[in-house]
Design goal:
Mean pLDDT is about 85; it is low at about 85-95, about 130-135 and about 310-320. The chain is globular. The strands form three sheets. It has a seven-stranded mixed β-sheet, with helices on both faces. It has ten helices and 14 strands. Helix content is about 30%, strand content about 30%. α4 packs parallel to α5. It has about 325 residues and is α/β, with parallel strands linked by helices. It has two domains: about 5-95, Alpha-Beta Plaits (2-Layer Sandwich), CATH 3.30.70; about 130-300, 3-Layer(aba) Sandwich (Rossmann fold).
Amino acid sequence: MSESWKLTLPCTRAEAELLAGDLPALAMIEPVPVIMTSEPDPDRPHEWRLDIYFEEEPDDATVAIIRDLVPSAQAATPAIEAVPAADWVTISQAGLEPILAGRFFVHTGSNAEAVPPGMVPFRIEAGRAFGTGHHETTTGCLEMLDRMARAGLRFRNLADIGTGTGLLAFAALKLWPLAAAIASDIDPISIEVTAENAAINRVPLGRRRGTIELAVAPGLEHSRLVARAPYDLLIANILAGPLIELAPGFAAAVAPGGQVILAGLTDQQADAVIAAYRRQGLMLVDRIDRGAWPSLRLRKRRSARVVLPPEPVKAPLPGW
């Protein structure tokens, strides 16, 4: 059996939470390794562990890149060991406990038989895209969607920008099954993963109501995203910087009275994000905080004028 390699370093909880986001530094490593964080001792909630799996033994340059991800471990010696190639995949899946968020139960294949009665299950495997439900930002968005549905809110035109695995789009369509929906991501791999997850979870894809259309696009830069606007619900679980940069476009693409769910930011970034959207006529109406990760719900003033962003100059990518 061929071997893979594991590098282990201690880290803090705050570092572990940041490691769950997009990590441009890992793009420098080919092939991209698989990253896992865990809490070895619940009695020491701030002492976490970072495990990264490689197809080949990491060289000094690769180790240096990983060390830069966890400043708290600069004095620690990385533990590097060979492991059977099949073992780390099994372990990584088994280590992902199911997530309960509102009425949703998010699980991997190893927990497929454990769905509690009355819960809405989604099978989302760990893999090539962000959004398995195990990060606080995704969980907070699921809870916000559930809260909105329980409050009697209804939506007919949905957009999930930066969809990752597709989970939030799937959940929204489950809550509002007569809605039209589109899910997009800047990463083509994420859209491939979303299509795979849609098949696994029997979520219909397409352009009709009750289905989800997929698009590869940065922000709203796709003809289909423009054509389907204005939206009465827009979801974006990305990062604070892009959320602020995209505020004018998002605001223009949302109908008066429409709602926006924003996540991927830390509590220290929340005020700046809220201010950026307030300047565009959206007001904060609800917030769910999970640790240091808030999920924000904003509503566009009904008196606001809808000015849609211009059609993108470049043609849509083939197949979407």
